[in-house]
Each structure stands twice: as structure tokens, then as C-alpha cells.
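Example (one chain per record):
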Amino acid sequence: MKLYNTVKSLILEVASVDSIVNAIKNKDKIIIYYDGDEPGGRGLREIEPVCFGYSKADNPVLRAWDKEGASHTGYKGEQPLPGWRLFRADKILSFKPTGEKFASPQAGYNPNGDRSMNRVIINAVFGNQPQAPTGYDINGIVTNIVNNIKRNIVNREGTQGLQGIDLAKSAEAYKLIYSAIESQTGKRLTTDEKSNLRPTIAGIINNIKN
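Predicted structure:
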């Protein structure tokens, strides 16, 4: 099997941001050694990387289609391979192209980024699909706007003005957030992009409330 025949050559091929970004751009199939969760998660995997960015905990992460190999969730019988997986980049101990490429995404691919990421650095583009806006700090944008809205309410009405207000359901809040994202990326968000971003934005707003 190709996956296990590459063990020796993997030793010196350490993952880096540049190698991950290039693999996504070139649509390279990759064999990694992942120091993942146990039991069953540590070992070789063959993946198709499609999105790189930073998680909500600010860890560098890679979204990829995991074709075969070690799998913690597969071992437990919860999510057997093949399937989508999110990898901590700092736990990818080896990273080597197989020499093969993938021309199209697997089912479930999100062309607008990744909802589990706080900030997307690069997302794979297939065919005539336009590049989604990337490189913005959605957590920072939402936090700043929500805090500004709250500050304005308190200045006008006092702290009692915040009672009963749910900014996660405020159309005005989303309008300001989308506008700020467009300002940072220099690209107008489509209706689908806004729809895909909405759950992430709502989650951030709810975390601020708590």
C-alpha cells in the first residue's frame, strides 16, 4: 500500500505553513504522520488538504479529506474513514506529497471557508469557483462591533438598556459585521457567504454575552 511504503521518506519532510499552503494551491494529495488523539489517532494518513487557517482557540489548523490511515474517531466507530477531518498543524510531524493530485472536492466541501475556523488563510478553489474572502479576523471584528453597539446603548440609555437585547438576532449587528469583513477583505460578500458566516458570528456574539 502506497501509504505505508512512504514511511522512510517521511522522516525529513516536516509540515510548514508554506508546504501546507502550496499543497492546497496545487491540490496535492499528501501523506502525513499525525500525532493525533489516542487511541487510534496517531500514525500515517493520506489526505486531500483544502483549507488552512486558525481555530477559535487560535491554533493553526488544516481541513482535509482523510482518505485512509490512522483515525481516532474511526477507531471508536464514530466517524470511519474516508471523511473530513480537522488537523492541528503543530501535530503534523511529517508532510509529503504523494505525486498525485485531486481535481475536485469531496462531498461536503465548503467553498466559502470553514465554520470551525476563526480566520481562514487559504481555501482551495476548484474550476470556475471564485475565491472566497480570506485573511480576516472574524472574532476580532465581531467582538469590536458588539462592544461598540453595547457601549452606544449604555451611553444613550444606561446599563438597563442592555436588558432584553439579543445581538445574535440583530439584523443591524450582522449588517455592520458583514460590512467590516468586506472592508478588510476588499471583496463584497455573496448571500451564500453571509449565510455560511452567520452561525459562526452568532456563536461569537453568544460567547461575548456570557
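Caption: The first strand starts at residue 28 and ends at 35.
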